[in-house]
Write a structure and sequence with these properties.
Length: 401
């Protein structure tokens, strides 16, 4: 199997670690690479530094970078520097490198930071970014729950803050912001009052204040760029993400006769039991004639090996966010998913095609004993608010495994 970074790896700053190739999962097959446009403004492929004092965007996942590109296209943002706070996960790093190629193709500057590359990395990263934060007039963030991002927000003087979608987490962020609650990811269990949480609390509180809009006429503005169904608090300016850049850049896709299943990391986050999940996938594959399983970038190799052996599905490790993979094709005429971001985004990205998206609800019996008390309600909300999708209720056979 090829590297998740495609046929050509991106140049990296001195000392940066190149992500290792992905682990093969028989009978996996990676989709072909994305056609590249001529580069416009990346200095011959070298990682450029920030330019001027325009917009500074911080991303930590491929979806966040995709939605930053969508925002820049919609807002006609002009001068944009994207800072990638690189994670450890090799699949995420590979997709981020491919997305960085596309960002450079669009003429944006990209700065790759090994933000988690050892004990001194945070100090080095924050020190290097502080001058850029001081100069930036606008800051765009993809993950308001990120401690890295929350710390960086305490250093900026920007009067214009924009939050772009980080998937379904955006729904929880807006809900917590509207109610003045602490910013805590929906799948986290426990009080969140450990030693590290308490030590970081002042920075988190400052970031939450920065993300809270000022009264009418205030000097700071807060915007949300989202495809999610959210009710924002007063003062937050909302722009709808309809994936116009994705539709204009890719496709339309060639359609296959079989259905495709979209994987989820609910097992890896401790929300759903492994055996229940595998039984549900097998039942969906039989019922809808699915032949391929598009793995989530955070799904474990062990689980995918087992899934392949027990269901016969072809495991595909996408090297780009699924919205781009599906738009480019080939893709099934039916895409089946569990509650996740794609039940909201794929109908938009695939608008104008014959592809149908279906979502299978999560049976409460599938949840683990360690799942957050909020998990079922949140997942039901993700499914219940999805537009232009077919609802697939769980079956007794799925529930019993």
């Amino acid at each position: 199997m090829s590297s998740p970074e495609g046929a050509r790896a991106e140049p990296v700053p001195p000392g940066a670690e190149v992500p290792p190739p992905e682990t093969a999962v028989p009978p996996a097959r990676r989709l072909r690479g994305v056609p590249r446009q001529r580069r416009r403004g990346d200095g011959g492929g070298r990682t450029p530094t920030a330019r001027g004092t325009g917009t500074l965007a911080f991303v930590e996942s491929p979806v966040q970078l995709l939605n930053t590109l969508e925002w820049a296209h919609t807002a006609q943002a002009g001068e944009l520097t994207v800072v990638v706070l690189s994670p450890h996960d090799p699949m995420t790093r590979g997709q981020l490198r491919r997305m960085a190629e596309l960002a450079r193709d669009e003429g944006h500057a990209v700065r790759w930071e090994e933000a988690r590359g050892g004990p001194t990395a945070p100090v080095r990263t924050i020190g290097g970014l502080t001058p850029l934060l001081r100069r930036a007039r606008r800051v765009v963030i993809g993950d308001p729950f990120s401690r890295y991002v929350q710390l960086l927000l305490t250093l900026t003087r920007a009067r214009d803050l924009v939050v772009v979608d980080d998937g379904t987490a955006t729904m929880e962020f807006i809900s917590q912001l509207a109610h003045g609650e602490r910013l805590v990811r929906w799948h986290r269990n426990g009080s969140g009052r450990g030693a590290r949480d308490l030590a970081f609390a002042p920075f988190s509180a400052t970031a939450r204040r920065r993300l809270t809009p000022e009264p009418e006429g205030g000097r700071r503005t807060v915007g949300l760029f989202s495809s999610m169904p959210v009710e924002v608090p007063p003062g937050v300016h909302v722009t709808t993400n309809d994936f116009a850049w994705t539709r204009g850049r890719f496709g339309p896709p060639r359609l296959t006769r079989a259905a495709d299943i979209v994987g989820t990391s609910l097992v890896e986050t401790g929300v759903v039991d492994t055996d229940r999940y595998l039984a549900a996938v097998a039942a969906l594959a039989r019922t809808h004639g699915a032949t391929r399983y598009f793995a989530h970038r955070k799904e474990s190799t062990e689980k995918l090996h087992r899934l392949s052996a027990e269901t016969g599905l072809e495991i595909v490790r996408p090297d780009l966010p699924l919205e781009l993979i599906a738009r480019r094709g080939p893709i099934g005429r039916l895409i089946v998913s569990f509650p996740s971001t794609v039940v909201h985004t794929l109908p938009l990205a695939l608008r104008g095609t014959e592809v149908k998206v279906a979502v299978c609800d999560i049976d409460p019996q599938w949840l683990t004993a360690h799942a957050s008390p909020r998990a079922q309600g949140f997942l039901d909300g993700v499914t219940g608010t999805a537009r232009d999708v077919q609802r697939l209720p769980f079956t007794p056979r799925m529930a019993t495994g």
